[in-house]
Amino acid sequence: MAQNDRQRQILELVRQRGFVSIDELAGHFAVTPQTVRRDVNDLCGQDLLRRYHGGAGLPSSVENVAYQTRQVLQHAQKRRIAALVAQHIPDEASLFINIGTTTEEVARALLQHRRLKVITNNLNVAGILADNETFEIIIAGGVVRNRDGGIIGEATMDFIRQFRTDFGIIGISGIDADGALLDFDYHEVRVAREIIANSRQIFLVTDATKFGRNAVVRLGSIAEVTALFSDREPPPSIRAVMDQNGVRLYVAEEAEAPLLPTRVA
Q1: Domain that holds residue 160
Q2: What pLDDT, on a 0 to 100 scale, did the predictor assign at position 255?
Q3: How confident is the model at residue 14 (pLDDT cuts 50, 70, 90)?
Q4: Are residues 11 and 88 in the same domain?
Q5: Residues 28 and 131 in one domain
Q6: pLDDT at 261 exceeding the cut of 70
Q7: Residue predicted with more confidence, 80 or 18
Q8: Hey, which residues does 147 pair with through a beta bridge?
Q9: Are 217 and 151 found together in one domain?
Q10: Confidence of residue 72 (pLDDT cuts 50, 70, 90)
């Protein structure tokens, strides 16, 4: 579900302060408390905020939203992001794709490609890509998480280290104001670190609700990625880190970058 401008500003205020009362928000926007409650309820329904007595705060930084809920949240935005990413992946490329509902949309968007070699620790991604008979799909070994089909653990990390791919496509649960990439599962983060270390280019795919979102485990910095694909521009503080480190930005609704060649040299 898309947010209106006021809801986006409410999200930003809560992220800045941690908690904001309904009365403060009503005064800030010069609307009634009932209007603010409707906005807050909408945002809570998307698991972007949490209702508390008299106001709203941030959702948990130690537990992610359930996988089934994440599949439908921001779905249209994720599909647009995925379609844009697919334009930047040539045929006959090799790539890692990690755990996440946005990376699963990328897998769907890649189905019209030919002769991709994909290494993944996501059973859902493997199942999606299996529909293209020209693809070679390699599934990492390790421990399967029942809740989302992700594969993690020491064996997964050892397996990833055997490859060096053209592209690593990774999702994330949150991006802090200083550009820190944040997630909820330490074991998942360790695998993502190996993907970053063993990819020539790193494409970070995330919808705009992840900007400023809290999560407890630090994966790294946005400075380490090659390009960010999102549905909106990031806040100025994150954009500044990107600009300082030459990280490209592709916004699904606003820009289409030129296509890469159809083959990898």
Answers
A1: 68-251
A2: 46
A3: confident
A4: no
A5: no
A6: no
A7: 80
A8: none
A9: yes
A10: low
3-state secondary structure 57-95: ECCCCCCCCCHHHHHHCCHHHHHHHHHHHHCCCCCCCEE
- Are 126 and 176 in a shared domain? yes
Q: Please report, for the chain, how many H helices and E strands are present, in that order.
A: 10, 15
Name the burial class of residue 224, with classes exposed (0-12), middle (13-18) and buried (19+) by CB atoms within 10 angstroms of its CB.
middle
* pTM as predicted: 0.75
Element (H, E) at 29: helix 22-29
The two tokens of residue 172 are 């994330």
Q: What is the DSSP letter of 246?
A: T
Q: Is residue 263 part of a domain?
A: no
What is the distance between the alpha carbons of residues 46 and 176, in angstroms, rounded to a whole number? 19
State in Å, rounded, how far the first CA of the chain is from the last one: 41
pLDDT at residue 85, rounded to an integer = 98
| DSSP class per residue in 91-117 | TT-EEEE-SSHHHHHHHHHTTT--S-E
- CATH code: domain of residue 198: 3.40.50.1360
Same domain, 198 and 168: yes
Structure tokens at 217: 């485990």
DSSP state of 125: H
152 and 218: one domain? Answer: yes
The answer for residues whose C-beta is within 8 angstroms of residue 102's C-beta and 6 or more apart is 78, 81, 82, 171, 205, 206, 207
Contacts 24+ apart (CB under 8 A), 162-166: 163/94, 163/96, 163/119, 163/138, 163/198, 164/198, 164/199, 164/200, 165/94, 165/95, 165/96, 165/117, 165/119, 165/198, 165/199, 165/200, 166/93, 166/94, 166/95, 166/199, 166/200, 166/201, 166/264
Give the model's pLDDT for residue 75.
80
Domain tally, the chain? 2
